[in-house]
Amino acid sequence: MIPATQLRPGMIIKREGELLSVLRVVHVTPGNWRGMVQVKFRNIMNGKGFEHRFRSEDKVEVVIMEETEMEYLYSDSETYTFMNTETYEQVPITIEILGDTKNFLTPNLKVKVEMYEDRPVGIELPLTVDLKVVDAPPQMKGATATNSPKPATLETGIVVQVPQFINTGDVVRVDTRTGNYLERAG
Question: What is the C-alpha separation between 138 and 18, in angstroms, rounded?
């Protein structure tokens, strides 16, 4: 248990039986009142976000996650299947747990799966992934690469703004934290 004033973004806490990821922490000291901590959370199991205000003397339970390296294998309509690279055990993870990280998964991609009490609760992607462009409009005449990006659909279905010189069939490097195009990949 730690004081609520020590919460930082990225921490995982357990509150009322739910696992919550800390997204934002703001310390509030209104006038002559006691200090408070305004925290924005995301429920790890259902993906819903909400805010909660703690008094500065409140205590919270921090949860330490176990990380296991796994390889993404395939998906069906509701789950994505990962394989433990040491034991070869296959673990299904639901779309609700993955959230937007599913937009960067390609077969054989190695990720770290966060486990809590032997249940997967999230994944940590590499900082960048290389994805193939499956649909991009043709280059506009007279447009330069710096001033007019265009939307491109990548192999996972995500749409990313890319420079004009990127064409269907190219492979691009994407930042998994922001979803932004970084560069053309070899």
Answer: 48
